[in-house]
Amino acid sequence: MNTPSTSSTMPSPHPGLAEPNELARKLGHAGLIPFVGGALFVWLLVGRIDPQPFAFVVSAFTSYAALVVSFLGGLPWGLSMLQQGYDRPVSPAQKLGLIWGVVYSLAAWVALMMPPHAGLAALGGLLIGCYLVDRKCYPELGAAGWLKLRFRLTVVASLSCFLAAAQL
Question: What's the rounded Cα separation, in Å, for the pair 117 and 129?
Fold first, then answer.
């Protein structure tokens, strides 16, 4: 039986958010399928199929990575909403998460406008940046237990982006 854990530095104000459950872990891993599949597609089929379907799949892969970066920017927003009251000041972790959440989406949009090799490399870097910022704000936002899963997902997703970019 899984019991919620708390951060060693600060108790979680939302014990239900302290650790991902089995469904969240499975869905997180399922979310890696387009990353790994996209990287494999690029490596195995570059120059071996017609340019138009190849470009379509590369564009789909890049778009998915940008959507994930935007999704990651929304997570601190949701966590902040649980803690924020109209008459309460914004904590440093909430401020960090709210600001960077918007920056992620804007940067992902810029990466979509780049040539795929550059855009995928930028998105791989953004995925790592999302994780690094979340390491700073998740403990205070009650989600420190998610960082282990986030690290694993970030490694696979960013590596997939970098490997595909290197082959384009």
Answer: 19
